[in-house]
Amino acid sequence: EIRNCDWSSDVCSSDLMYCIVQEASRYIAVWSRPLAGSWSKVRVYDPGSGVYTGATHAAPCLVSLPSGRLVALFWLYDASGSGIASSMRDDDGATWSTPQLTETVLGSAGAVVTRIRAAYLSGQILMVISTTAGGLDVLGQFASVDGGASFGLVGTLGDWAGGMGEVAVQGGAFVVVSIDPALTTTGSAVVANARRFASAYTLGSSIT
């Protein structure tokens, strides 16, 4: 069982491709391969005999930093607490640090995270999570200036209605695109809502 496969082919000088997956509703693993070569797998998170009930959706994603470091972000819910966890590697994905909770706002709020996306720009990581509030799809915006070791909530969870958020860097700014629920009804075309962010710590302005 493979969930939420994210690709990045330019994250390090050794020309490796990476894919992060959730396996068997328990494990977080990163697959890597040279542009010409075979795939290999390293488990980033293995709960062992512990209880891991981020079961249906850990929503993992990868972020690459200019130093070549890879940061894995995923939803963690076990005996140690719940929230977004991060694990890092500096050796082409061979070994990963023990996952640490980087934020606990979502866990404290009892949120169910269905998607995590993040991007790096100018010393900041912008992380956008998809969840629900009051029965509606909403996005939560988080920012980090310490390479993903910790994240702070920007604004209020649910400030931005929408679902299936996607993050990119374009023209020296963060760009986030999501499904606009106010303009999407059953049987209609999906309408995108986009915002541009000069900084991960601002809520951004709509792009029309």
List keywords for this structure.
208 residues, mainly beta, 5-stranded antiparallel sheet
Please give a structural write-up.
- By secondary structure, the protein is mostly beta strands.
- It contains 1 helix and 17 strands.
- It has one helix at residues 105-108; strands at residues 2-8, 16-23, 27-34, 40-45, 61-64, 70-78, 81-89, 100-103, 115-121, 124-133, 136-144, 152-154, 160-161, 163-170, 173-179, 192-197, 205-207.
- Strands 9, 10, 11, 12 and 13 form a 5-stranded antiparallel β-sheet that branches. A 4-stranded antiparallel β-sheet has the order 1-2-3-4, with no helix packed on it.
- Strand 6 (70-78) and strand 7 form a beta hairpin.
- The longest helix has 4 residues, at 105-108.
- It starts with a strand and ends with a strand.
- Residues 1-13 and 184-188 have low confidence and may be disordered.
How many distinct beta strands? Answer: 17
The residue ranges in which pLDDT falls below 50 over 5 or more consecutive positions are 1-13, 184-188
Order of helices and strands: EEEEEEEEHEEEEEEEEE
Radius of gyration equals 17 Å
| Outline | globular
Give the % helix. under 10%
What is the average per-residue confidence, as pLDDT, rounded to a whole number?
Answer: 75
Please state roughly what percent of the residues sit in beta strands, choosing from under 5%, 5-15%, 15-25%, 25-35%, 35-45% or over 45%.
Answer: over 45%
Backbone structural class: mainly beta
Ends apart, CA distance between termini: 38 Å
* Number of helical segments with 4 or more residues: 1
Q: Characterize the largest beta sheet: strand count, sense, and whether it forms a barrel.
A: 5 strands, antiparallel
